[in-house]
Amino acid sequence: MIFLVFIMGYILLGLMAWTNGDARRVTYPTDSQGHFCGQKGTPNENKTVLFYFNLLRCASPSVMINLQCPTTQICVSKCPETFLTYVEMQILYKKNSSYWEYYRQFCKSTAKPAKSLPEVLMDDDCPTAVFPSKPFLQRCFPDFVNKNGTLTVGNRILFEDGSGRMRNVLELREATNGINKILDAREIALKVFEDYATTWYWIIVGLTIAMILSWTFLILLKFIAGCLFWFFVLGVLQVVGYGILYCFQQYTKLQEHPESSLTLYNIGIETNISMYFQLKQTWFILMIILCILEVTIILLLIFLRKRIHLAIVLLKEGSKAIGYIPSTLVYPVLTFILLSICFSYWIVTALFLATSGVPVYKVSAPEGQCVHENETCDPRIFNTTDVPKACPGALCNFAFYGGKSLYHQYISTLHLYNLFVFLWLINFVLALGQCTLAGAFASYYWAMKKPDNIPALPLFKAFGQAVRYHTGSLAFGSLILALIQMFKVILEYLDRRLKSAQNNISKFLKCCLGCCFWCLEKMVKFLNKNAYIMIAIYGKNFCRSARDAFNLLMRNILKVAVTDEVTHFVLLLGKILVSALIGVLAFLLFTEKMPVILGGPTSLNYYWVPLLTVILGSYLVAHGCFSVYATCVETIFLCFCEDLERNDGSAEKPYFITPSLHEILVKKQSVPQKQKE
Question: Which positions make up the signal peptide (predicted)?
């Protein structure tokens, strides 16, 4: 009931946010009067860029991006392209009226060229000077250029600000601190978008192939589990070995031809990631990482060599269950759809919450020495108040969107509520999937005659039972996990906000808390998953199921170690192999080293963008498919442990497990006991 109340509140929150929010406030910048730039059907329809009269008044880029810079802002059709002061324009205007036509683009509609500079400053009709700029986030920012280590704007280091003072470009840079990196990031983002627009078809093809390949592996495990296991192992080793060889070739190439490579000193701190691939150090680090991965896999194979036979038998048993209930392979698609709905709802609600309210105007003074600074004002009657007399040059500019209602006062709290319910829903969807799959596979295990005694539509019945009878238990388990994740988010937020005020002790405590919460989250996830399996088997509440699952696992700790360390390692190899195979094909395709395929993507800005997308997406697809297998094995294992305690193998109490798996698991348990004796 509490879960349903929170969902109803979440729906009401979305309705309130959609009613009070306005997505245009994110899409369009807003001038000093609160009018949108570039909005269709308004006088500013063709004026899509926001222009600041005096950027030197801005203290930081965050102030500008939040539209709180203490200077007049107007909508313009384009940014200035040359240096020009208002006084210079008046002198040139007497010879050629075109100078005024150019300059008036960056003035208010009431401006006139005959006004003197003091009058312009008093009426705030025009900027005192304009300088070369370029649009970023639909706002005009200085066009900084770094030539031979010297920062310039329009090939100048010094320029006049229009009031008779000479300014250095560094002063302008200080007012727009960090903008260059953001500009570079935006440029990269545009190129990344172009790459996605070019390669989206091939990305979908790659993810589809990954899904088909994962399903194929799961089906083949039923027939050739042993051969497929060694295929996983050798395939992963070969793919990683190919990566090591390729990195070594690139490193050797840059080592032999240093003129074609760069150094860390040359590039400094670059946002253009492709520059790092011209560093020999990059390829050397990648080679070392792949070598460590290769050696780790080989060592794990050596230490787990005695467990491989058990893993193969467990895989075969899981394959039989999935073979009798093939609909379980499609269930991850439903989970993905539900997660996508939750994620989309959270993003849209957060966006509308951030844009809720009405325009709020604040008094801003050029030098910040006004007693009315940051007071709320009304631009329609501002000039008739006493503020302009008390603070000459003060302006009434748009500051942000807000309000004085109860809703607007608790916007921050509503953001936290939005995030918390989102985490709760995500964990609930995952819990529902685990309980549903566990119920289906439990019906397979507890069928004496397989597949004759398996009920019809086991997955559908397990889903119906989970929704009808176990919603409260799943909601309670997911609530615990959501609370832990919420604490982690708050801890990270506080760390970022208080970063400048931290000392070594506080950093150490933060790291300890982060480590503790990480361990706690992993432990709760493990207990929750086994509790959901017990819920699916017996239908008890969450606490009793978690207690029974924990006690059952502790009584069979040796078997737990065997199943976890072996089966998860094998499935991990399968995920790595699927993503690696798709990654190699994508690499050959996106780097145009695969001319056999016609119509492939060409002239990409960053081939690693779609490549990493395909690799990561393939791994997630494989993880979704193989997670069904992992749930199957864990469910069968818990049922087996319960089977051993409830039955003795006699005619009255026969075992439900297959004889081959029973023989191996019991043997694995008895060997350590004999060694201990």
Answer: 1-23
